[in-house]
């Protein structure tokens, strides 16, 4: 993708008087890191960047607590907008949040970028350890060209791309004001690993998840990096009643992950960020994709495709399956 | 060793299943004394997390029972509940809890006999599965159940 | 100082010779390497870099039951005499140093019996960092990749063998238990490798005057800017070897309960939530500012040291690239 086009578009957007600021990505402070940034003036636009290293969803910043654009002054904020860069998954997240009434589309100016998938930071940092200087990465013909200190390295995309992105169905933003670059076709979803786990006896499934969840330190990075986890006063913060106790043990960790997965059922848009930020490598997307698969099979529903469609669990159909009901 | 008596928590809706259970009593129909009934106004009020919560604090199985489709006192509570519990049940199954432990039924106020049958069936199924141990212990092996 | 050598392939034997102790070490668990109680010697994984779960846990566990009770009125206190002699093996020198920073907190005016019970029975066996990691900045904050502060025994990786430096009496006792595996080292010094390792550290910051600078910046708008990209998870505090905040909660069922001490994180909103509903640190800005102030000012005021050992974990694990070194240098530049 042409960065210059992105910067030009950003400049145009910031030239509009209703736009307060733009949320984008800039180079991070070291190595492969990318940092979210908030750009208010045209002069700052040149720090904008976009590469396969841009992993975090910027949609988070629209709903995060203390967000600058709160409708505190209804009249004033109504006229104001935030410009935002979105990839395919982010645009689904936006649709879903709009459908849920979490944000008003009138407050957004969305610039879409067809995304070729992001690099899993854990993989690339394991491959090129000790890289303190900022790095450039571009994707060309199925390879990542990684430039570290003027030295180029060519690595096949498959070796570094995040697992979720390999099966991304909607790489092109679905709803946006401007699209930068050419549309990309998606891949069919793959649920083979889910089916293998589904076929195991209950004890083995429990054992599998126990091994995974026993590592959890409950830092809640998965929750906070999730664009759809935007509840004001998360259930995990409630003390009366305390649904999930703060003790870190198997029982509570299971409860936490059940809660998290269930609250994302029919809402997860498969960006995979929860799994990528997990410091102890819990395969959270297995849970999310299981929910995604079931919801698709049972109700023919996919999250975030259309901001007009009501959320799955707020609706019902007379003919919903009920073969398990006595 | 005495036979395993399952501990089942049943969430019954006020308008149909709770009245149905009442009828089971007034008609002196016998059913296993394994269930602890919690009356709720509607199955739509039952947060799916209640299921996970009761399973981890001592229950071996959960039953959610409400009005037949189309007969909900609040028009659509049971439809909404149906969707939620399919998903919750699948999630818990995926995590390793046998779905036979999470049951749902439609029992109307006139179906006292059906209520007894449902409880009998659920009790039998859970007896076969045995107690739900896995979810009740924390990492140090201290049980978190009601002693 | 006594030094020994230990062939690397004899490491499992060395650890099994110490079976009188409870051993904690970096353990391979699935795809991750975590610090945990070592049940099987095969699981030791000396991956010093990727340890989001850290050695702090061995002495200051994430959840610690203080006592339990039931409806009959029986109260059972945790038996601290049951704490076994423990060896914490395979930690980085910065992690060992972190315990010396935790000591004044837990053993100050009101000594904490739980911390003391474990701390007094724990020996720290560290491995020198020949190859410091990308975000290491221990040398800027008073440490070193070959630092001995806090350690009882320092392992130095010299190709196919470890050189063991005995630092304390406890270290001597431990080497005594495995003496058959150790041979006295030749007088060769580790100075050179140590210097090479120090030279490899690429990130530096001059912290002179930082506490004074912070004293004048409390109300500065820069904190809002700094905190703007923070998503408010607790990864930086839970992976920090010097963070020690905890909460105490009663976990009860109908018939029994227990009081537990659990790690808390100042990055969570409920950390400062009052019973009245008021929250004095209501926004990310205040919480983020507090984290920096606690580490680099309040701790200096109270305990005369920074509450940071320069391990770089918070920088490496942060999902949104909040870079402590970067931010501190910007604090220094702020007028």
Instruction: Please state roughly what percent of the residues of chain C sit in beta strands, choosing from under 5%, 5-15%, 15-25%, 25-35%, 35-45% or over 45%.
Output: 15-25%
The total of helices of chain B stands at: 4
Low-confidence stretches of chain B: 139-143
- Structural class of chain C, please? alpha+beta
Greatest interface and its participating residue counts: A-C, 48 and 47 residues
The number of E-state strands of chain C comes to: 12
Walk me through what this model shows.
- The complex is a heterotrimer of chains A (326), B (147) and C (335).
- Chain A is α/β, with parallel strands linked by helices.
- Chain A has helices spanning 3-15, 60-63, 74-79, 88-99, 121-127, 157-160, 163-166, 192-198, 202-213, 221-224, 250-263, 273-277, 284-299, and strands spanning 19-27, 34-39, 48-49, 81-86, 108-112, 136-140, 143-148, 151-156, 178-179.
- Chain A starts with a helix and ends in a 27-residue tail after the last helix.
- The model of chain A has no long low-confidence stretch (mean pLDDT 89).
- Chain B has 147 residues and is of the alpha/beta class.
- Chain B has helices spanning 17-26, 48-56, 77-95, 112-129; strands spanning 8-13, 35-40, 61-66, 102-106.
- Chain B has a four-stranded parallel β-sheet, with helices on both faces.
- In chain B, α3 links the parallel β3 (61-66) and β4.
- Chain C is of the alpha+beta class.
- Chain C has helices at residues 11-16, 56-59, 93-106, 113-120, 169-177, 191-200, 210-215, 222-227, 235-238, 284-303, 313-317, 324-333; strands spanning 3-7, 22-29, 32-37, 63-70, 75-77, 86-91, 122-127, 153-158, 161-166, 183-184, 246-252, 256-263.
- In chain C, the strands form two sheets. In chain C, strands 3-2-6-7-8-9-1-10 form an eight-stranded mixed β-sheet. Chain C has a four-stranded antiparallel β-sheet with strand order 5-4-12-11, with no helix packed on it.
- The longest helix of chain C has 20 residues, at 284-303.
- The model of chain C has no long low-confidence stretch (mean pLDDT 90).
- Chains in contact: A-B, A-C, B-C.
- At the A-B interface, α9, α11 and α13 of A face α2, α3, β4 and α4 of B.
